[in-house]
Specification:
7-stranded mixed beta sheet, Rossmann fold, binds guanosine-5'-diphosphate, binds magnesium ion, 6 helices, 253 residues, alpha/beta, 2 domains
């Protein structure tokens, strides 16, 4: 028998963009097997694929006329059912607004069930709208991700977190430098930081590239040591800074 696929439940009050998100997940990955009506009339199930992981996804509140601001018992019940069977809950809110009583009620359902949950702040169509994010911590959900389901903004970031939360990361495959480390060489001027860096690099024949680091005056160099990737950061910038403060300190009083 096939291993059961993980199931994500999309919940949220009407009009926050649940179905927009659901459709995007199914369409944009082009890996839909089918998006069919669920067992219960009001839930829609679909299958999506993200970076080779198949995930089942269920949208709730699907057939409420015009998705008006109704939050009645039937919706509540179907949300509860979806949450019961889910491995991960995507709790969607309107990130441009403040939390409503319905949002709080849903947060309570999520807390009661005690399952993994991501609070998705939808409708964050551009960066400035993310300024609101802190107020959402009041719902007591640790992981908060602002996205725009309409434009797809940051949905990739969200899916990365989904994969992580579902423990779908396969150890040993696709691992990118998991064992790499960065060492920063810091210290006062003239103590021998660069000599140490050079000694480390010259000792090994396996230097790959000495590239200018992101910080203006620091240099990143890569070396491989017994198969481990190590990045050495020589913080030459500190030397400059130290010189400045030194000269300030030596101004005669
Ligand atoms: P649902 O009731 O939660 O399923 O919400 P829908 O997916 O039906 O979306 C409700 C409305 O919000 C629709 O008019 C969508 O076009 C709009 N909407 C959904 N996602 C976004 C978004 O990311 N940004 C903006 N600006 N509007 C959105
Ligand atoms: Mg909907």
């Amino acid at each position: 028998m096939n291993k059961k696929l993980p199931l994500i439940a999309i919940i949220g009050r009407p009009n926050v963009g649940k179905s927009t998100f659901f459709n995007r997940m199914l369409k944009s990955r082009k890996a839909i097997v089918d998006a069919q009506e669920g067992i219960t009339r009001d839930r829609i199930y679909g299958k999506m694929d993200w970076e080779g992981h198949d995930i089942n996804i269920v949208d709730t509140g699907g057939f409420i006329p015009n998705d008006a601001e109704i939050f009645n018992a039937p919706i509540r019940n179907q949300i509860k059912q979806a949450v019961e069977e889910a491995d991960l809950i995507l709790f969607i809110v309107d990130g441009r607004e403040d939390a409503t009583s319905s949002d709080r009620e849903l947060a309570q359902i999520v807390h009661d069930i005690g399952k993994k949950c991501i609070l998705v702040l939808n409708k964050c169509d551009y960066k400035e709208l993310e300024e609101n994010v802190y107020q959402w911590y009041e719902l007591g959900i640790e992981t908060i991700v602002p996205i725009s389901a309409l434009s797809g903004r940051s949905t990739g970031d969200l899916l990365e977190i989904v994969i992580e939360k579902l423990d779908l990361i396969n150890p040993g495959s696709d691992q990118v430098d998991d064992d790499s480390m960065r060492i920063a060489i810091v210290g006062m001027p003239n103590v021998g930081k660069s000599s140490l860096t050079n000694a480390l690099l010259q000792k090994e024949q396996s230097i790959v590239t000495p590239i200018a680091g992101t910080t203006r005056d620091s240099i990143d160099s890569q070396l491989v040591w017994y198969g481990k990737n190590i990045t050495i950061v020589d913080t030459a910038g500190m030397r400059k800074l130290a010189k400045v403060s030194e000269s300030i300190n030596t101004i005669p009083l």
